[in-house]
Amino acid sequence: MSQQPAGGDGDDGSARYVFRATVRLDPDRPDLTAEPSTVETVLYKEAAQPGDDGWLFFRDNCWRGELNDPAFFRTETEDALGVPVDDVRFQELQTDETYHAALKAAIADDLALFNAESVTEVLRKYLGSSIRVTSE
């Protein structure tokens, strides 16, 4: 997961998924404790360009702006971070205007893929109101 901000790196725009995770600090030594024993952190996952491999991450992992399988995603986050994760929540898709337009165009090209009648329906169905578009 990346710490780089969404921004206009290229002509295709950019976006990232933002998550909040609560990680557990559980020292392996009996003479060592951590206070607080849990810490909340923000994680960023770069969004694939619309049409590229992985661009359907939102469809496969989100429903109405929430993770559709929190236990699975918590396990995936533990594996990625190498620490116990008590909780992970999807916060938003941060995107620039160029990426947002490309995303909507890719969705419009195949609405059947989303079992929907409009781009707006797709975005609401999977991301709810959790999209933040920034100017480039």
UniProtKB/TrEMBL annotation:
What InterPro entries does the entry give? LWR_salt
Which Pfam families does the annotation name? LWR_salt
**Which protein, by its recorded name, is this?**
LWR-salt protein
Q: Which gene encodes it?
A: lwrS
